[in-house]
Amino acid sequence: MSHPITILEQYWNHTSFRPYQEAIINSVLENNDTFALLPTGGGKSVCFQIPALIKDGICIVISPLVALMKDQVNTLKEKGIKAMAITSGIKYSELDTLLDNCIYGNYKFLYLSPERLQQDIVKQRIEQMNVNLIAVDEAHCISQWGNDFRPAYKNISILRQLQPSVNVIALTATAKPKVIEETIKELDFIAPQLFKASFARPNISYQVLFSEDKLYDLEQQLKKYRGSSIIYVRSRKMTIEIHNVLEKKGFSSTYFHGGIPTKDKQERLYQWMHNQKEIMVATTAFGMGIDKPDVKTVFHINLPESLESYYQEAGRAGRNSEPAFAIVLTNKSDEQTLKNQFINSLPTIDEIKLVYRKLCNYFQISYGEGELTTHRFNFSDFCKAYDFKSSKTFNTFQILDRSSIIKLSQQFNYKTKLQFIVSNPAMFSYLETHSQYNTVVKTILRTYGGIFEHQLAINIALISDKAQVSEKQVIAILQQLHKDGIVDFLFSNTDSEVIFLQPREDDKTINRIANLVEKQQELKRSQVHSVLEYITNDSVCKSQQLLNYFGEVSETNCGICSVCISQQNTEAPPSPKAIQKQIILALEKKPLSSRQLVEQLPYEKDQLLDILKLLLEHHIVEMTSANTYKLKHL
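The chain above was modelled as a monomer; its predicted structure follows.
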């Protein structure tokens, strides 16, 4: 039998393990059921990949994330290791062949989603495989108290019946004690070996900075902490907008979100990974499975939905153990925005029942029928037909999907897509002779940033609404623009696909999941409350707050977070008179903006702005037409 360190050197070119890795690997090789809680950057995949390479046979890996599965399979293939992922959209005949390859083709890894374990063909073939290990990635998903509970994870226990003599390793980066306990129980562990690394990241300075102008403060922080950075935002549109602002300011940046073509994603990831681009502006899905050791700063422009996701995202900084910074920029409006997005948009049980009934009616599914039928539909048309709010309706669909009542696929390849393929001047020159298209074209340009650079999914109904013309007219204009070589236009009247996994039983269907849904919604409220508490608590060390949240008691201050730094500053605060005097001295030289004053004077921004307001009220200074401050007598 090969030694783990030999395999590590051969395939990973490392000569030593990270903390806990070797102990976990040895536990797996001793055929123990093993639970590995390794925070982000701890190297979880190695803990099951090395034992699987040492043992004869194939390792079955259960993962909820298709993108992560594909990334790991590609990485293994690059190392010359035979691996495959069976994802959605594979035909039955192809699935049959792939599973045969796992039995007879000397494959070492088979990655599956938990939903696949419901298929008879998959279960039958797994029974015939020479399985050497079962690895459950993102294992917290099995617990109803987990950050991302997926009922389909309950299917994993079937593997213990299909392969009763094979041991299981469960891996996660974020799990509270209650989640660990439930996961071990659900996976039917015998004499479990638990390895739990500390959540402490002593080299990361967790900072919460209150900001009325996030883009300006982001720029200042990027100048202060030069180096590889990730900036997390909530929307695709924001990735493009912030990237454009940073590029204009002279920063080296790129952006990343789910709608970018695969080729562009790979190119941008390569540029950032190899420091050709310093800053990556991305939606929160970015970073899973990516190990870049020299990330200096991770910024959150919007509040995270939970401390679990924040800890994972922030933990992508400083994996080389060098000083690093995780910075949240926040202001007064963020609390309501967070609640609107993640609390106020949660549907009630009655609302879920209503949407489910209407969905069945929409496709004319009779009571007791509809099981395993597939339907394409347009989400916005559905919402419009029943006067449903889109955010709450989409959340309802996600609940129905997670509960295995329907399967919702957002088929981006069916979406209506558009890209302007001429230059900006050429397009406006065209409009001079085709002024009848002006309103529609300008509406599109103001709604979709980046439409010259990329093919983007567009919403015809939204454009029709904004431009005050019919949907038919919008489509006709876009078809003419396509004919004239101004745009690439792919039209489709569907944007999603729904598969009904259960026969229609109306309220009975929803009643079966009601208790679980209510527990999950209570968990979501609790998570949002914890985020708001973390953001507003400026008396307890930020690192301590995170450790305590994950059940790790700590009474030692980190000394480097925003709270610790403010507490270390024990000097007497400057008097209002001293600040007033310095402002007046600065303005005697020339008029200055509030930003310029903040940059020039050694005072806290809020303090300085308060004194400025007083000076304005007492008519000592006044505003100029250029929005600068000047002394009134000058």
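DSSP finds 26 helices and 21 strands in the chain.
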